[in-house]
């Protein structure tokens, strides 16, 4: 029996999980998250699509994450560093130890790959 090792990152056939910022991390707004976790592999690797409505909250990363912005505008500010505006077409990595804020200015959708 043939098993494909190709997996498209697409919303079709995947039910999203809904969420909000973790308790105590919300700074402003009422952001609502939708996460389509498309792939979950051994070793703590995840890939999918995440979307948030406007708002601002604190973030802290213990994991490594690659992000590619599909739509919208967000501002990511690292504690003690500069704020970076990201929009459709931008790609970046957030490394373990990153602490700061994520502000969704316009509803933002991203593709992600996380390694725990």
TrEMBL record:
Gene3D superfamilies: Jelly Rolls. InterPro entries: RmlC-like_jellyroll, RmlC_Cupin_sf, UGlyAH_Cupin_dom. It comes from the Bacteria. Pfam families: Cupin_3. SUPFAM superfamilies: RmlC-like cupins. Residues 40-112 form the (S)-ureidoglycine aminohydrolase cupin domain. CDD domains: cupin_TM1112-like (cd02227). This is (S)-ureidoglycine aminohydrolase cupin domain-containing protein. It comes from Mesorhizobium alhagi CCNWXJ12-2. The lineage of its organism: Bacteria, Pseudomonadati, Pseudomonadota, Alphaproteobacteria, Hyphomicrobiales.
